[in-house]
Amino acid sequence: MFIDTYENFAEFYDITAAWHVPKIAGPLAEALSVVEGTAGPVLEIGAGTGRVTEVIAKTVPQADIIAAEPSVPMRAVLTSRVFGDPHLRDRVTVLEEPAPHMRLPDHLSGVVLVGVLGHLTDVERADLWARLGERLAPGAPIVVDFFASDPSPMPLTKVLSEPIGEQTYEWWVSSAGLVDGLIRYQRTWKVIADGEPVRSVDTTSDWVPLNLEQLAEESGLTARRIGDSSIGVLAR
Questions:
Q1: What does the alpha-carbon distance between residue 230 and residue 144 come to, in Å, rounded to a whole number?
Q2: Are 67 and 54 in contact (CB under 8 A)?
Q3: In the beta sheet, which residues pair with residue 222?
Q4: Quick one: residue 77, left, alpha or beta (phi over 0 = left, psi -120 to 50 = alpha)?
Q5: Residue 171, Cα to own-chain centre: how many angstroms?
Q6: In this protein, which residues make up the domain named Methyltransferase (predicted)?
């Protein structure tokens, strides 16, 4: 059963994505540069609000894209972004299933997983690797992102602050490090007006810390990192 851990802060998520995606857009484009798009669509699992979808579409203009996002409020933004852009609307199909239950086409030219793998159990990841392996063209990349996978404790930190109208939106994050093999993140969004907080939304979520070597071992694929970025590539 899918539990939507993004539901109560989905209204703020695109602010985070607008900060993070430009940092990985270049390495992501490099990782996808080998995709021709003729073997099938590019699958994006956990498309969020669609900012990575835009990077995929620009990088691989000849490929159709399947963008899957199980969170209803996140998918609402994703669908709106796709519908409002004629360059995306004809090419991007939005699906609602979470990774373990996702309908997959028979053939894929590539896969993108940004901010996803840490949500999956060992069994769910093993099943996903097997299903993708049956469908990926030879040499087709699985692109992954290792952002937020450092198991070291993190003191309460203001990660970003963005003005919107007369209010400022602040994102605060902390972590006590590993708890039962998981990173437990505490995140708080604060809405500030006239220097005073007028609203605060707190969330707690667990994340499986994974590195590229672990993913290569469990998937049976070769792995490489794109420069010193948080983007890695798995392929046959």
A1: 8
A2: no
A3: 235
A4: alpha
A5: 18
A6: 42-139
Rounded CA separation 59/8 (Å):
32
- Give the other-Cβ count within 10 Å of 101's Cβ: 11
pLDDT tens readout for residues 103-154 = 899 999 999 999 999 999 999 999 999 999 999 999 999 999 988 778 889 9
* Residue 109 in tokens: 């030219």
Domains annotated on the chain, with CATH: 9-146+210-235 (3.40.50.150), 154-207 (2.20.25)
> Are 143 and 32 within 8 A, CB to CB?
yes
Structure tokens at 166: 């007369």
Global confidence as pTM:
0.94
CA distance 203 to 173: 10
